[in-house]
């Protein structure tokens, strides 16, 4: 009963004071038009003379039509202080309908002597005009009751008299961040409108910047539109602009880079008004003002790899992902979950990462995804075999590995045990339990490795390729990709933390270059290459041009509204153990075979005989058994023919094509 009463009260929660003022306006207009101005002639359309009674009958009929329609259209349950164009259109429609009904009634009712349509429109228009003006003035008064100005004090007094409220004014733009919006189109103007109408907004737009001549020199919401050619650092400083926001959708990568290079000279912090890179139900389909994403910072085109054919391959299969709680492993889980597997098994030794992705997928898919999480190390062969016995996976995605280069230089025995023998366990158990496809995740550091991590991954590739020659039920492949943006070991989170703490940013060497991929790109590459594998392929990706890490650091500093070398220092700390200045090009067309995807290639790398691999594994086992990092390192160099010392590579790096192209 209480709920029903509340609903009724809410339904009839009208603003009666506004009804009263509208009635006063209506009566004033009608008296003026019908008695003072005499908006109708003394004769009705039938020739009969109008009397005072006739005039009051017309007023009463029009009154009923107007206010009945306004209540029907919920005009008096709107909060006009925040009324937008929709509210005014609704009032316009209500009075328009009332005018039509009034005209019909006074024509069909015999007791009423009709007047012409022109007179009816004149009366209705004047009444509507004054009603709209009152509402606009009310809204304007609420926004401009600044006590420091005469107009503000007058408006505040009028609201107190006519509304009965004493407004304590707070300047909505005080202490707000002043921004310039690049782009005076639909997206830019919607951002400005949102900021102007929000009393809690942290930003206030001071100007638009556009290139279209028909907009330059004009105003939108009272905000001037400037020409991009006329914008200078001095002018932005005079306007006290603190941040510049890009609100120009559908820019190409090159255009976005040109804009960024142009505006970063201002010293202002640069942001973008766009959709979030990782949408969720709470922000889906809604633009927001945000920092540049990592992908945008590198100004490279994202590569879409996965397709329907790939999804069809993994559908209705039992998929096991080792290292499923890591950066790549967790994204593989997300991608596989979209493909409707029969069962998804997440295997990881680090329970927190596995738990996080488990909860994320359960929230996203609920009971529609058959999800299992197992905590164990791939080095623990008996435990790993129990998992294979229990689930009998159709596809194994092997992402479990130690990947941190400097740490593995000081933990060589652990790197070999986990990366090499953990991979060997997974490969052999995949063969034993009839896994349909085994896909190993490798790295560009396996190309002519100069560190322990890269060398162990290269040997893992050799294991996978050697087992592909046995002719068993399992199809083997490996996929290489470059540095992963946003991963736990990525340089970008480190730079962000250093900038947030005031610097300095530390670089091992200002000449260093790297190839970059996003986590989704890398994961999609693994899945598509794995689905197209025939047996023993070593897949590589065309990742475009490498990036100088110094440029990346400088861009991140500028995006934070600071200047490199002035606000934030960049310091060289020296190359770390096992680190080289460049990663070699993964794609050399003369050495690779093409696939159906123009970005995926197959390296022509003949697999070593299985007997040779087993002999090398025996040597590594003996070295690991000693517990000596030095002995294990020496054996690792012997069993990986392409393993080179970093000094050999770095001393000649300046003459290499990879370094020269980035310099250009």
Question: Which CATH class of the largest domain applies here?
Answer: Alpha Beta
Number of helices: 24
Largest sheet: 9 strands, mixed
CATH homologous superfamily of the largest domain, by name?
Answer: NAD(P)-binding Rossmann-like Domain
Helix content bin: 40-55%
Instruction: Name the shape in a single word.
Output: elongated
**Low-pLDDT residue intervals, each spanning 5 or more residues:** 1-12, 279-283
Helix/sheet category: alpha/beta
Structural summary, described in words:
By secondary structure, the chain is α/β, with parallel strands linked by helices. The chain has three domains: 13-143, no CATH class; 177-292, NAD(P)-binding Rossmann-like Domain (Rossmann fold, 3-Layer(aba) Sandwich), CATH 3.40.50; 308-483 and 517-544 and 584-657, Rossmann fold (3-Layer(aba) Sandwich), CATH 3.40.50.720. The chain has 24 helices and 22 strands. A nine-stranded mixed beta sheet has the order 10-9-8-11-12-13-18-22-21, with helices on both faces. Strands 3-4-2-1-5-6-7 form a seven-stranded mixed beta sheet, with helices on one face. The longest helix is centred in the N-terminal third of the chain and has 27 residues, at 117-143. The radius of gyration is 36 Å and the shape is elongated.
């Amino acid at each position: 009963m209480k709920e029903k009463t509340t609903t009724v009260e809410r339904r009839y929660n009208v603003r009666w004071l506004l009804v009263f003022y509208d009635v006063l306006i209506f009566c004033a207009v009608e008296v003026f038009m019908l008695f003072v101005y005499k908006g109708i002639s003394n004769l009705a359309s039938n020739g009969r003379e109008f009397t005072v009674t006739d005039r009051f009958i017309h007023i009463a009929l029009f009154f009923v039509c107007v206010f009945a329609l306004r209540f029907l259209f919920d005009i008096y349950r709107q909060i006009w202080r925040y009324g937008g164009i929709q509210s005014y259109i609704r009032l316009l429609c209500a009075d328009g309908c009332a005018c039509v009904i009034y005209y019909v009634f006074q024509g069909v009712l015999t007791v009423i002597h009709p007047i012409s349509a022109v007179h009816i429109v004149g009366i209705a228009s004047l009444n509507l005009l004054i009603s709209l003006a009152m509402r606009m003035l009310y809204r304007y008064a609420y926004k401009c009751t600044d006590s420091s100005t005469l107009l503000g004090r007058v408006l505040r007094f009028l609201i107190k008299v006519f509304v009965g409220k004493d407004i304590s004014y707070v300047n909505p733009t005080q202490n707000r961040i002043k921004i310039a919006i690049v782009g005076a189109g639909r997206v830019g103007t919607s951002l400005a409108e949102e900021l102007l109408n929000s009393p809690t907004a942290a930003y206030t737009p001071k100007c638009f910047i556009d290139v279209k001549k028909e907009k330059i020199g004009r105003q939108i919401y009272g905000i001037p539109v400037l020409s991009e050619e006329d914008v200078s650092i001095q002018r932005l400083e005079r306007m006290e602009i603190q941040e510049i926001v890009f609100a120009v959708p559908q820019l190409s990568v090159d255009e976005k880079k040109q804009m960024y290079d142009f505006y970063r000279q201002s010293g202002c912090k640069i942001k973008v008004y766009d959709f979030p890179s990782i949408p969720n139900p709470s922000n889906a389909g809604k633009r927001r003002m945000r920092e540049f994403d990592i992908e945008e910072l590198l100004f490279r085109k994202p590569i879409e790899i996965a397709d329907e054919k790939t999804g069809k391959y993994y559908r209705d299969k039992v998929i096991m992902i080792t290292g499923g709680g890591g950066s790549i492993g967790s994204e593989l889980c997300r991608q596989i979950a979209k493909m409707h597997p029969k069962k998804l098994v997440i295997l990881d030794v680090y329970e927190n990462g596995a738990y996080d992705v488990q909860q994320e997928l359960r929230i996203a898919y609920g009971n529609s995804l058959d999800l299992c999480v197992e905590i164990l190390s791939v080095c623990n062969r008996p435990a790993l075999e129990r998992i294979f016995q229990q689930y009998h996976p159709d596809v194994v995605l092997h992402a479990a590995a130690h990947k941190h280069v400097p740490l593995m230089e000081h933990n060589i025995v652990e790197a070999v045990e986990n990366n090499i023998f953990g991979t060997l366990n997974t490969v052999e158990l995949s063969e034993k339990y009839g896994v349909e496809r085994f896909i190993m995740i490798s790295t560009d550091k396996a190309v002519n490795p100069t560190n322990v991590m890269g060398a162990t991954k290269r040997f893992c590739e050799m294991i996978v390729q050697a087992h592909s020659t046995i002719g068993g039920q399992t199809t083997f492949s490996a996929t290489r990709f470059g540095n992963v943006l946003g991963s736990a070991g990525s340089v970008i989170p480190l730079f962000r933390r250093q900038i947030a703490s005031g610097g300095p940013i530390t670089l091992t060497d200002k000449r260093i270059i790297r190839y970059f991929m996003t986590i989704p790109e890398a994961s999609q590459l693994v899945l598509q290459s794995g689905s197209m594998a025939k047996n023993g392929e070593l897949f590589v990706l065309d990742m475009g041009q490498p990036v100088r890490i110094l440029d990346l650091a400088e861009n991140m500093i500028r995006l934070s509204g600071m200047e490199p070398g002035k606000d934030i220092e960049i310091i060289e700390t020296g190359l770390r153990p096992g680190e080289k200045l460049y990663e070699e090009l993964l794609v050399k067309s003369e050495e690779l075979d093409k696939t159906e995807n123009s970005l995926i290639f197959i390296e022509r790398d003949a697999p070593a005989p299985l007997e040779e691999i087993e002999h090398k594994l025996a040597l590594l086992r003996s070295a690991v058994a000693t517990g000596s990092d030095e002995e294990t390192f020496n054996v690792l160099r012997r069993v990986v023919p392409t393993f080179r010392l970093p000094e050999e590579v770095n001393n000649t790096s300046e003459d290499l094509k990879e370094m020269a192209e980035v310099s250009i």
